[in-house]
Every structure is written in structure tokens, then in C-alpha cells.
């Protein structure tokens, strides 16, 4: 008989091993799926994991794109992971991301066509504050009225989406856009354009901020008393209260920082890779970031790697569609498999497999 | 090289032996799709046209495509990667790919780009669209005649001129045959979302609409109408014949194949130039799907006559006298709308009660 036995302590080895095992299992099962679809399995795996990085023809383009795609995911996931550590489930990063983009873009467009060097920093600030303010709604409601932040933050995402549609076809619409929805294109306005800092590296201010956030979060969680309080609140809320941690402060701090980072990510995206505020610029980054946060074990360095891995499967998946004609749904299934196997392998972090009957003493 | 391509090339070589300057190397044509080819509507027709074009050139042209490309930063990457993998001509088939298409085109001056339904062109970027509003006129006529509740529901996608033109054209022609007709428009801000489309259709039907028109790409509204019974719909972008004879009583079909064949041929011949194409029923880019027996014979005859008049150019779907929604004059008696106004149309005609969202 096989049975699972709870480990006295989570296994450090399995914590590191399980993502690697998950990726390998995904390659095997995914490869079988590709073979059933009539596509060459080894080539498909190679196109997804290898070609974006090392293909002669287009790696020079797709490698920097990894950073472009991973940047916002990492930035948002870092903010979320801090809250998740404290047991504060902010599911509405997508809404905070959108509101950051709207506020930042709006603040900049108010000064169009000024060429002042202050425009972009002001936009980043407004973007961060926009996301922060949006996250304060569930924070206030939770601390004052005891509402559930999962529901409130999620619902606010739909509100943000509606506001986005409204401003992109109204208030912030490009007056020279012939009546079509969408703001001015920030790529054509130097003072507001979040350009690549070094040509052909994909490195824009959002990616730099994401890297700083990784380091900042690492220091916060391992060196600072607030990080300790956050972990304590998550692991033993009662103990935290007895030791003088104010739960409301943790809620405000965690939601605030997640909103701030998500809002900034939105602004960087809309002034950089997206270029334009439209009803569909957001593309679900705020939700994907939740996956990235968990895939990275809520650890800053893990999130950095998870963000890059996620970006790799996206870009590799696109290439597989192009070069091998794999259906888009198969790629999504492939990504889903990776998460499934991760969760499955994670069981062994907390449990071990035992053979035979339960020990008779 | 397998035997089949070997044979084809041999046949080609023979056929080309007589023509001196023919090109026989393969070119690649790429397509960027907003939805999956299985949407049964917009993307389905583009994909059908892609396949027809590929078959037409019989091995000379390779096609590649990418589906479900969001109108976000992902679009620019998808188009760039397509250009990098060696596509010689790329069709970007949704309005939201406009700025990304222009941006990528600047980086690849040797690749030809074709953007559907936009207005920005460059030396290597053409635009193309169809005069769907001609089909809407036929739809409006049938809808106005068929409605018993005098309430017509309209599922609109994104408030761009193309969609507004369709609403206006359908309304004008419904009103002409039924002065009591009322339109309710629901904006979904998406081109393809079966769940939202079904919800919108149900809401319109619950409010008494017995005709549901749609400018979104899936067949979900057809299914909702079928469920409700006694509601008629029209296939959008594609024939959607699986819902005939009821609820689908007719359809507007986009036929892109002749255009794709012509444009790829131009690349093969080296005669490709940046153009702006806007064709309607006459040129065959817009088709009217079979009008089923659920429509009374006299209405069907009138609708077909209207279609012929639009095709021959004898009648224009926007012919005065017409006023704008605010009551100001737009077209005088007998005057027809110019293409510039139609291309940037951002107003409703008189009689429509809602406001265009902005």
C-alpha cells in the first residue's frame, strides 16, 4: 500500500526540486500530446524552450523580448507575493495594473506636447499612486468592515476594465485618431516614451524597476522587521497579534505595495511595449502574475526565474504556432500542464511517500 | 523534398518554361488572427481565404498563421516574429493591429504588410476592408419587415466607424420599411467572446427584441436565439449556415480569397504597391448568404432586388435625405455619402436613440 506521510518539516530539497521536475514532466507529457497532434515532439519542445534563446534567425529579437514580457509579470508578482506571505489574497492586481496605466497616462497626456524631462517621472509616480489608490479600496473595506479582499479586489478589476474602455474611447482618446478609440501613441512622444535603455536588449525602465523590486523584496522579507511581521501574520496570526503586530497595518502595507508595483507596471507597459492606452492593452498580466508568484514559491529570486520561464513558454509557444503550426490551445494546455505538475510535485515538499501499512508500534 | 513537391515543381517548371520572367521560388504569406479559426465568423473566413489562396498557388506559396493574438504589446511581437521567420507578405486581420503593423513595417522595409480595416498606410503597408454596410442595408430591410415587436437588438463590438456605419445602415433600411422600428444597441468592447455575446443576445431578447443583429464574431448569439425561439438572426462575417433556416435567415459573408490571391500574386509578380481597397457586394468582397424560407417570398424578392441595386452601384446605402442624430442636416435629397465621411463616421443618423459611447 502506498500512502502519504506528513513531514515534520517541509523538505528543502523538494522545494527546489519540484519546479525542475514539473518542467521535465511537462516536456514529456507535452511531447506526447504534440506527437498525438501529429507534430514532431522533440522539435516542438526545442522550439519552445531553446529557439527563443539560441536560434540564429530570431533569437536576437526574442531574447530581449523575454525581458519585455517577464518585466511586468515579475514586478506585479513581487508585490503580490508579499501579501500572499501574510495571507492577504489580492486577486485584483489586474485592476491595479489598469488603473496605474490610466492615471499615469492621464497625468502625462494632460501636459501634451511638453518635452520636459519631468514628464516621464511624473507619469511613473502617478501610475504607482493610481494602482496604490485602487488597492486601498479593498484595504479600507477589509480593515473597517471586515469584507473579503479576494472578492473586493477581483470585482474592482471589472470596474477598472470598464473605466479603461471608457477613457480610451473618451477622455484620453487621441484627438487626431479619426474617431477611433485609443490614446495617443507614446512611442511618438519622446518625453513620455519608455524606450529601451540600451538598444536591442529589451531593457526598459519597467524591467529595471522589476529587478530593483526583486532585491528590495528580498531585503524586506529577510532583513527588515516588517518582513518578519508579515511572515508571522501569515504563519501564526494569533501569535502575531500577541507580539504586538497590528493586523490593519499589515493589510495596508501589503495591499499598498502590491498596488503600487502593479500600477507602475501598467504605466511602464502602456508607455513602452504597448505604446498606447487601448481597451485591450492589459492582456491579463495581473492574473498571470498570480501564477508567477506561486510558481516562484513566493520567493523574490524564485519569482524572477518563474517570470522568465513563463515568458519563455509564451514566446516559445508563439514560435511553435508559427513554425510548426501548433494550435494555440495546445500551447495553453502545455502551460497549464506545467502548473499542474508543479502542484503535484509540491505535495512531496510537505509529505513523503511510504510503502506498507501504517506503522504498528 | 518529398515526391509530391518534386512533382509539383517539375510541373511548374514545365508550365513556366514558356513564360520568360516567371518567378518559381516559394514565398511565404503570414496571417495574424484575433480569434481562433474555429470561431465560425470573422477569423474563420480569413482562414478559409488563406487556405483557398494557398490552394490556388498550388505549392508556390507557403502560408503560416498565428491565432488568438491579443491587441496588446503581444501583437507587435507576433508580427515581428512572423517577419523574422521569413514571411514575404503579412496580413494583420484586426483593427487593433494598426499601430503595431506600422511599427513593424518600419523595421522590415522589404516585407509587405496588409492591415484589415485600418486607415494608416506606408510604402509597404496597404489597408483593405469591405463595405459591410451594404450587407447591413439588406439585413435592415429584412429585419424591418420581419419584426413583430418592432424591437431590434444589435450586439455591437468596438465603437469604431466600421461598426457605427453598420448600425446606421441597418437602421436606415429597417426604418424605411417599418417606421415604428426601434433599435437597442449593446456594446461589448470585444470582437470575440462567446459568453458575453450570448449574454447580450439573451438580454436583448428578454427586452422584447425578436431580431438580433451582431457585429461580433462567434455563433453564440445564434445559439441564444435558437434557444429562445421565434427570434431571427443573421450570420456575421461567415454564413453560419448551421443555424439556418431559423434563427439564421440570411448572412453577410466576407470573401477575402480573391483579394488575398490578387495581393500575393502581386508580390510574386513584383508589382505589389501600397493601396487602400474598400470593396463591397459588387466586387464580391461582401456576400449575402442564402435567404431562407423563414422569410416571406415577397420580402426575399425585395431584399434580393436591393442587393442587386447595391451591387450595380445604382443605389448607395447612404442616400439622402438623411439627418444626423442631433437633427442637423447631413445628406440632401438624392445626395450620397462620400467615402471620407463614411471612413471616419462617428455619429448616428436621426432616429437612433442611444448615444455612441465615448
TrEMBL record, chain A:
It is a multi-pass membrane protein. GO terms for molecular function: transmembrane transporter activity. It comes from the Bacteria. GO terms for cellular component: plasma membrane. This is Nucleoside ABC transporter membrane protein. InterPro entries: ABC_transp_permease (IPR001851). Pfam families: BPD_transp_2. The keyword Transit peptide does not apply. The chain crosses the membrane at residues 12-37, 66-84, 96-112, 118-141, 150-172, 203-221, 250-268, 329-348. Keywords: Cell membrane, Membrane, Transmembrane, Transmembrane helix. Its main location: membrane. It is found in: Cell membrane.
UniProtKB/TrEMBL annotation, chain B:
GO terms for cellular component: plasma membrane. It comes from the Bacteria. Transmembrane segments: none annotated. Residues 1-22 form the signal peptide. Residues 29-305 form the ABC transporter substrate-binding protein PnrA-like domain. Pfam families: Bmp. This is Nucleoside-binding protein. Gene3D superfamilies: 3.40.50.2300. PANTHER family: ABC TRANSPORTER SUBSTRATE-BINDING PROTEIN (PTHR43208:SF1). It comes from Primorskyibacter flagellatus. Keywords: Signal. The keyword Lipid biosynthesis does not apply.
